[in-house]
Design goal:
Bound molecules: zinc ion
CATH topology: Collagenase (Catalytic Domain)
Radius of gyration: 17 Å
Distance between the termini: 31 Å
CATH architecture: 3-Layer(aba) Sandwich
Length: 259
């Protein structure tokens, strides 16, 4: 889920970045929105552990049983893109999906034309249709509870089994409010759809900090998703088990520059 609060960005980044060890700041890559923030490209193991523990567990709103551990797909993931928005962004959305597939080892992603067989369904919609789309997808009660609680701009619902395996994810992405809103939502919501379900408003590097508008697949979130899909972690794994395994995993994948 994305909310844009552009005036908070500078203040938050200014206050929090010096307290941590991330380094090697690089400009946003080509294709990122105008004014997209730069990214740090070198992180310590602690930087990555902190983000993973905050983002791979929990969610804004839970319906049904409490999930036991991390959630992810246990199979090659198929994605269906549905566009009813007045601006057709299917081509851009397809290339973002493919970028995730290319960038994350052990995450196989392909696009399919049949919604019924899709693991992830992406709805590209106009902003005016956002609330009614949520009501259609989740019923009045859940949709209203979610909107009242989080004032969302885009959103993703992740349905998982009790063992942590994701059954389906459904994302709603606003297509008619310019490139920046679209790119920010598209990258952010896919990260949720693959299993990083939570937010962390105090983490200065992740796009899952709702005070940041990013709009590209940054080095930090790519590292977190790489960890989530590593075969040495399993769906449903508990906080304790994950916490114990992360330092060795991060070291063996070469994701960190220091402890
Ligand atoms: Zn979100």
């Amino acid at each position: 889920m994305r909310r844009l609060r552009p005036f908070v960005i500078v203040l938050l980044v200014t206050l929090t970045v010096p307290a941590f060890a991330a380094s090697d700041r690089q400009p946003a890559p080509a294709g990122a929105p105008v004014n997209a923030p730069p990214q740090y490209t070198a992180f310590t193991s602690q930087d990555l552990i902190r983000g993973f523990m905050a983002l791979a567990f929990g969610a804004d709103l839970r319906v049904g049983m409490k999930p036991k551990g991390i959630r992810r797909f246990d199979r090659a993931v198929t994605v269906f893109i549905d566009s009813t928005g007045s601006v057709d962004r299917r081509t851009a959305m397809r290339s973002i999906v493919e970028e995730y597939g290319r960038s994350i080892p052990h995450l196989a992603v392909s696009l399919i034309a049949n919604e019924d067989d899709a693991d992830i369904i992406v709805h590209l919609i106009d902003e005016k249709d956002f609330e009614s789309a949520l009501v259609r997808a989740f019923g009045v009660k859940t949709a209203r509870a979610f909107v009242a609680r989080t004032d969302p701009q885009c959103m993703t619902s992740v349905r998982s089994r009790s063992d942590g395996v994701i059954v389906t994810s459904t994302s709603f992405i606003i297509a008619d409010k310019g490139d920046r809103v679209f790119l920010d939502c598209a990258y952010h919501e896919l990260l949720h759809a693959f299993g990083l379900s939570n937010h962390d408003q105090h983490n200065p590097w992740t796009m899952l900090n709702q005070h940041r508008s990013v709009g590209y697949l940054d080095v930090y979130d790519r590292a977190l998703l790489t960890l989530l899909y590593d075969p040495r972690l399993a769906p449903g794994m508990s906080r304790g088990a994950v916490r114990k395994r992360l330092p060795g995993l991060i070291a063996s994948l070469g994701l960190a520059r220091g402890p």
